[in-house]
Design goal:
3-stranded antiparallel beta sheet, 11 helices, FAD/NAD(P)-binding domain
């Protein structure tokens, strides 16, 4: 097997590290709890021996019930793991032409180089859909003012994993007003900005109303300010960026503000007046194909079954979802090389529900989607309470996954 990676010979605007599996947005792989679709998907991948999940667990940093990783350690671990596999050859060069023969997995993302995008456009005979993804700023822990900020997770879950910057009503409205006045990075005339809802820049969310952030990423529910004993009007949360907890990511603060404006506006947040920003937020372009019309349930390109797609290029949203599609593509290419029938996971599983969504030809206007329980087939006799329904969905998913694994006879 030959794995092509254009770094370090060429970097995208969002990438900096020469290692594989570089996380360019948040360092969180979202919830671990089995009561969530994201947690269920990770558990399914763990049972399928996913290298990504295995190395993420080894690189974990405290983040309450979420699986957050030390991004440098995680990327290094994945790189070393792949380099240690004898039958994988890693070639460091850009691919601009799709190989004319043999089995091929196109697993590009979150940014695809222009040359490869043009090659895929010729192959699929379609134009690209595209959207913008935004990254959050990172600050040093020792520059946070703990006379104002405090440690704690919502409802006490996870101990003191998060740092919280509480806001009074007056502080909140002052922040929102300045956020809305701040200067943004200009876009070119032909660019149409269609951000994914889960990564929408915070200034765009604020435009929905002055209280939009207080009911969104700055919602204070489940938190009490130890100085006052009361719930703040709003709260900015920061999550550990590395295992040593020397760096913290501003949760939900994806942004396309100019760097000087970020420096000015974000210092209005109590506790961050003297913050040291080691990375400012930025915006980058993501590209994805019209998967429902182009891919079958095995992630093969219709009309060219030797070619499979995986990762964000398929239109899934999120690190884990991208890795999950790669896992399935890898399983199927392995089976193709040995003359075995191709497989698709049961739609009742998180992986199967995700694959069913991105290959559903009846999807009218295809947009990026992360895994969620809304993608799952309904239960035959669903309980009335949401928690009980989710428990039943999880129970069914894991049962059907185990049956599927037994039918495969292998998970490689």
């Amino acid at each position: 097997m030959v794995l092509y990676e254009m770094k370090p010979r060429r970097f995208s605007p969002a990438h900096r590290s020469p290692n594989l599996a570089e996380l360019v947005c948040s360092n969180s792989l979202k919830p671990m709890e089995l009561t969530t679709a994201h947690g269920l998907l990770k558990e399914e991948m763990r049972r399928l021996d996913s290298i990504i999940v295995q190395e993420a667990l080894k690189s974990q940093v405290p983040a309450g019930t979420a699986l957050a990783v030390d991004r440098e350690e995680f990327s290094r671990r994945v790189t070393e793991r792949l380099e240690s596999i004898p039958h994988i050859e890693i070639i460091r060069e850009e691919v601009t032409q799709i190989p004319p023969e043999g089995y091929v997995i196109l697993a590009t993302g979150p940014l695809t180089s222009e040359g490869l995008m043009e090659a895929i456009a010729r192959l699929t005979k379609r134009d690209y859909l595209h959207f913008y993804d935004a990254t959050s700023p990172i600050v040093t822990a020792d520059s946070i003012d703990f006379e104002k900020a405090f440690r704690g997770s919502r409802y006490g879950k996870g101990g003191g994993d998060y740092i919280n910057c509480p806001m009074t009503k007056e502080e909140y409205y002052r922040f929102v007003d300045e956020l809305l006045r701040a200067e943004k990075v200009p876009f070119r005339d032909f660019e149409k900005v269609v951000p994914y809802e889960g990564c929408m820049p915070i200034e765009d969310m604020a435009q929905r109303g002055r209280d939009a952030l207080a009911f969104g990423p700055l919602r204070p529910v489940g938190l009490l300010d130890p100085r006052t004993g009361r719930r703040p009007y709003a709260v900015v949360q920061l999550r550990p960026e590395n295992r040593e907890r020397t760096l913290y990511n501003m949760v939900g603060f994806q942004t396309k503000l100019k760097y000087p404006e970020q420096d000015r506006v974000f210092r209005l947040i109590p506790g961050l007046e003297r913050a040291e920003f080691v990375r400012y937020g930025s915006v980058h372009l993501n590209a994805f194909i019209d998967a429902p019309r182009l891919l079958d349930e095995f992630l093969r390109l219709r009309g060219e079954p030797r070619i499979l797609f995986a990762g964000q290029i398929t239109g899934v949203e999120g690190y884990v979802e991208s890795a999950a599609t790669g896992l399935l593509a890898g399983i199927n290419v392995s089976r193709m090389t040995r003359g075995l029938p191709l497989v698709a996971p049961p739609p009742t599983t998180a992986l199967g529900a995700l694959i069913s969504h991105i290959t559903n030809q009846y999807t009218p206007q295809y947009q990026p989607m992360g895994v969620n329980f809304g993608l799952f087939p309904p239960l035959e006799d669903p309980p009335k309470k949401k928690g009980e329904r989710r428990a039943k969905l999880v129970e069914r998913a894991l049962r059907d996954l185990e049956n599927w694994i037994r039918e495969l006879g292998e998970v490689q």
